[in-house]
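User: Hey, quick favor. My workstation is busy. Could you predict this chain's structure for me?
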Amino acid sequence: MSDYIDVTVPFEDKMMCFPTDPQCSIRPHWRIANGDIVNLCVYEFGSHTGTHIDAPNHFVDGGKTIDELSERHFLGIAKVFDFSNNDRCIDISDVDNLDVKAGDIVLFKTRNSHLMRTQTFSEEFVYITPETARFLAGSQIATFGFDFLSIEEFGGGDGFGAHYALLGAGVVIIEGLDLSDVTAGEYDIVSLPMLVKGGNGSPIRVLLKEK
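Assistant: No problem, here it is.
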């Protein structure tokens, strides 16, 4: 039995996507049952579907693309912080005493994980404020992980300030995690996106193992 906890949301046809993003389509192209030699599917989805990463290039023209990112963003030790009691947002007062430092991979668990598990989109998801993002960016963390399809208040909030603060500082964002089965603490993290040349985003498989 594996000691790893898979915090990735499985891909499936018509899965929950952000309303402004392309919908996910997984359809058969060849079928053995129809006399074809193999089973083969066609996948169509946006680069920010399901559990995925935002490379800096997502919001910063000229920012690093996926193929330019170091593995330090995806492998190592992850610190999980539990904000499940926060009803609407995670503000600077919630994080200014967090034990985070340069190079950390930081994951925030909220009530959003339930939404990711049930594949229910709600505009009332918990988000982080731009001030919180600026604190994390100022701490020079490597990666910030969150349990919904966006870290930002629905509609872009304060001019997408959270995204600009993190991605502008070179912090990679992982969105769409399901941290339902994870408690606060430190974990070994194994995660890698697709190696998309020039990519601004990509699905990513994320596994955690309690230390």
